[in-house]
Amino acid sequence: MTLIDSLMSFTFAITLLTLTPGLDTALVLRTATSEGSKKAFQAAMGVNAGCMVWGAVVALGLGALLTASELAFDVLKWVGAVYLCWLGLQMLIKPRSQMAAETTVANSSHRKGSNWFIKGMFGNILNPKVGVFYVTFLPQFVPAGYPVAAYTFGLAMIHVLIGTLWSSTMIAATRPLSRWLKRPAVVRTMDRLTGLVFVAFAVRLATSKR
């Protein structure tokens, strides 16, 4: 495989996978509609930061631990499942009724706790399926004669770039509907629906196999 073949093949494959609806898509869309574009971009950057962490781990060879150790995989799997379930239940039990920018001073402490960059990043880092995917997928596109660590991390950065473009597109698409999306009933519904999605992903993650 030549350098050009590698980059073209990987870019095509990772673009298809990025466009496939999943947890990251649900997180960005929910945050864009109920929290606004700024918070949604923070969540997207958090997801990308998680991808960078996994890319660095795999590039350094540490990611192989997930495929070699059943215990390591199970521990991270359950921690991630609990975290996602907690996020989902929070949205189901206490759905918002207005955008973050419209909350009152009385709720300022709650706003400060809503760090969507951290939520996006840890939601990605605590998902061992991302690590296993990187371990098994990225090395396939490293052409002979190139440094594996640097090239693997470079592929992860391509994934981050495509993810950023897709997230920005989704966030921009919510602007024409912003007035309707700001309605309390719509915000509550989005929170509850996304909460259900998060819980479903938690269950799927908890029952997943290597």
What does this structure look like?
With 210 residues, the chain is mainly α. 35% of the residues are buried. It is globular, with a radius of gyration of 18 Å. Residues 101-113 have low confidence and may be disordered. The chain has helices spanning 3-19, 23-34, 37-59, 64-68, 70-93, 108-113, 116-125, 128-137, 148-173, 178-181, 184-206. The protein contains eleven helices and no strands.
From the spread of the alpha carbons, the general shape counts as: globular
Give the strand tally: 0
- State the order of secondary-structure elements, H for helix, E for strand: HHHHHHHHHHH
Relative strand content: under 5%
| Average residue-wise pLDDT | 80
Instruction: Count helical runs.
Output: 11
The largest pleated sheet is described as:
none
Cα end-to-end separation: 28 Å
Structural class: mainly alpha
Task: Please state the CA-atom Rg, rounded to the nearest Å.
Answer: 18 Å
Helical content band: over 70%
| Low-confidence spans | 101-113
Salient structural properties:
210 residues, mainly alpha, 11 helices
In terms of topology, how is this protein built?
Blueprint: H1 3-19, H2 23-34, H3 37-59, H4 64-68, H5 70-93, H6 108-113, H7 116-125, H8 128-137, H9 148-173, H10 178-181, H11 184-206
Concise structural overview:
This protein is mostly helical.
